[in-house]
Specification:
Two copies of one chain form a homodimer. Chain A has 430 residues and is α/β, with parallel strands linked by helices. Chain A folds into three domains: 170 residues, Molybdenum Cofactor Biosythetic Enzyme, Chain A; 74 residues, Alpha-Beta Plaits, CATH 3.30.70; 152 residues, Maf protein (Alpha-Beta Complex), CATH 3.90.950. The first copy, chain A, is built from 14 helices and 17 strands. In chain A, helix 1 runs parallel beside helix 6, helix 7 runs antiparallel to helix 8 and helix 9 runs parallel beside helix 14. The longest helix of chain A is centred in the C-terminal third of the chain and has 20 residues. Chain A is elongated and about 85 Å long. At the A-B interface, helix 1, strand 2, helix 2, strand 10 and strand 13 of A face helix 1, strand 2, helix 2, strand 10 and strand 13 of B.
């Protein structure tokens, strides 16, 4: 009855791959706005080694809830990495939760207790009752040393499955994961079938249009597709598995060809290179410099360009001309143009892009103007209406777009559109 | 043996509050970079009603794993809201996972089947085997209607606990949560003790320094503290519970007073108002306009200023003067200053801030220059070194800072520092 999964995650899928589950303990983490850097690290590292992800959770500092969450994690995966709740205070309950689940006791590890005594003595301090808690382990656990902190980690084996308990402090977690977790898991699951990943960046194409090229791949076995949309830019990841290195190479070639053919001039890269980086490379290749004139996006385009290390080799600068006065005085937009056509018009955006080239003495320029909203629109130019213009030594182009979303989204979409249009022109697309 | 939790989450804590657990089903969600908007919505809405959060999870499209994760959620909370995995394809396994856990069967709901038939008939389509799956429910469930999609939701009761299964499509989830979940839970848990929240925004203070003011609150019962650091800006949330409305009002007043006293001129707001918004309000109050001159941060400061709706009332524009040539030509920085002191110097940043005021005709200005890295530094000015300057009709100020982090972090920290310095000066701080 069960069909194969057509949309497995960016990680590899299939029953042949060991699965990994990740759990973070801490009431303060039950805020979706908080990122779980430890969990992200584990999943990225283990997926690259051929593991699949099955569970990603956060649980409050409550013994019962921790035990239940660990049980869910252990049922869904061959390896569980749990972070947090090993500190010295009473609300650190991870050991107790694990012990409850496994029917074991929490005991003091004599070896780690001596390490603690030694470290505290170096600081001229004696071991008190609070710090003694950091030498507690679940009975039968292998102690995982912690070079940067006082709480030791635990490795528990349960019916062939691995349960790692590590401290949540990122620096401690990172080191212990690299040193004690990753090598053990790689050794425990040798000869994992290879995985290949193609990370495509696509710009200037709506998500629905981009889906068309992906449709045949959703149904192909051994291919997992994921799309992350970013308002005018899409990150598309295809993960390939289920074959020898040679077969995967062939399949990877097929995927690359299909994406290149399907996305054409919208394909920024097949290796995760961003639109900003691609623009920088294209400019360097032609030996051209760039300047920007922004009204609507006020700095967003410039900020994206300089996010690339070494941008100073081609980025001369930008003008955020929010007030009409600034458009006239600093960019040389004729007052008559503003009066006759308005600030949000083809004539104004073209005057802006010319002004930016001239004032900065740049080979290329890009300009934006529009109504970000939520106020300031008219029936003819509602919030979300904007113009972008791009200019190179080979010509000048402008177009009008419309995105009926919130202020921040309109700005982001306009900035990506401007970068895409300029990049296309610098590469010689017409 | 168990001590009270000193650092409960932003939600309320304490045994008197019903707990809520959230689970998202979908292999594609096992990417920590993806946000779970459905889960965030549930937690925010229920915390405001006095619930506490106990568990937040994501699980792959695997029946066994779903059953285990639902079990963990049900053990940790009085109410579980699960999203996703109710679609028509074979990899949608949430109903099956829930049925397995509860020892029930999956059956077709005749009522919803007729709704589906009617909807598809309107589109001129017949009900096929694939779509029939969307009328499946766990035996004994109450059907929750879905006005925007084809899959119905389920409400299951298990030993007094609530288990809601909703589709994952955000528009469908949102509407069903508001209509079918929230009212039922509010009704089921009447008379929840009140909660108060103080959301402080603090700028220009390192996290460690900000902690000092918070220390007494960590140990106070009925107070939960959370800090979200953003490179130069801190969001601090204190959630108060465990008392009558009157007692909470008193305690809230005490918290506000303590934070105001402890943070002094670093306190941007006690109600979540951001640094950018506070700067805008201060400028409007004094009737001043502002312009920016950015080298290091190239557009980041301008972009933050215009992120506030209505910024066009005080923001005239900005110049990203990345190349020295642009600093000279467009901002009027004397070439001799650049030659003698370099682009990253007090003299240059002061010349930039003056240039911005003059060129834009603005009452106030702010300027940044520095080495973002990873290359381009010297021993004297390593990457992460920067200067900011602020100017108002009442004076001009400049200072040097250093943050040895990555390029993006240096830019973000410098932009926040510049905004904080300007805001302080506009308010008349010296």
């Amino acid at each position: 009855m069960r069909e194969p999964k057509p949309q497995a995650s960016a990680g590899a899928s299939g029953p042949s791959r060991p699965r990994v589950a990740v759990l973070a303990v801490g009431t303060e983490l039950l805020d979706p706005a908080r990122t779980d850097a430890n969990g992200a690290r584990v999943l990225a590292a283990l997926r690259a080694k051929g593991f699949a992800a099955s569970f990603l959770g956060r649980v409050a500092d409550d013994e019962e809830a921790i035990a239940a969450a660990l049980q869910a994690a252990l049922r869904s995966a061959e390896a569980v990495v749990c972070s947090g709740g090993l500190g010295p205070t009473g609300d650190d309950r991870t050991r107790e939760g694990a012990a409850q689940l496994l029917g074991r006791r929490v005991v003091t590890d004599g070896g780690w207790l001596r390490v603690l005594e030694g470290r505290l003595a170096q600081r001229g301090r004696a071991l008190d009752a609070v710090n003694r808690r950091q030498a507690l382990i679940v009975e039968g656990a292998e102690v995982l040393p912690n070079d940067h902190g006082l709480a030791c980690g635990c490795l528990l084996r349960e019916r062939g499955r691995f349960l790692f308990l590590l401290p949540g402090v990122p620096a401690e977690f990172r080191e212990m994961f690299e040193k004690s977790v990753l090598p053990r898991l790689v050794e425990a699951f040798p000869g994992l079938p290879p995985v290949r990943t193609v990370r495509a960046v696509v710009a200037g194409l709506p998500e629905a249009a981009a889906e068309k090229t992906l449709l045949p791949w959703y149904r192909r076995p051994g291919v997992a597709v994921s799309i992350l949309p970013h308002l005018g830019v899409l990150e598309i990841t295809l993960t390939l598995d289920g074959g020898s290195e040679e077969e995967l190479s062939l399949r990877e070639g097929e995927v690359r060809e299909a994406l290149a053919g399907g996305y054409g001039r919208h394909l920024v890269s097949l290796d995760g290179v961003s639109l900003e980086e691609a623009l920088g490379r294209a400019l360097l290749e032609r030996g051209w410099t760039v300047a920007v004139a922004e009204s609507l996006t006020a700095g967003t385009v410039a900020q994206k360009i300089v996010s690339v290390p070494g941008a100073s080799r081609y980025f001369l600068g930008g003008l955020s001309a929010y007030a009409n006065e600034a458009k006239v005085r600093l960019l040389g937009v004729p007052p008559s143009t503003l009066e006759r056509f308005g600030a949000v018009s083809e004539e104004t955006v073209r005057a802006m892009v010319r002004g930016a080239r001239a004032r900065f003495g740049a080979a290329c320029a890009v300009a934006t103007t529009g109504v970000a909203g939520p106020t300031g629109g008219t029936e003819e130019k509602p919030p979300g209406t904007f113009w972008v213009a791009a200019a190179t030594p080979e010509g000048e182009w402008a177009r009008r777009l419309y995105l009926p979303l919130d202020r921040a989204s309109v700005m982001e979409f306009a900035a990506h559109t401007a970068l895409f249009d300029l990049w296309s022109r610098v590469r010689g697309e017409r």
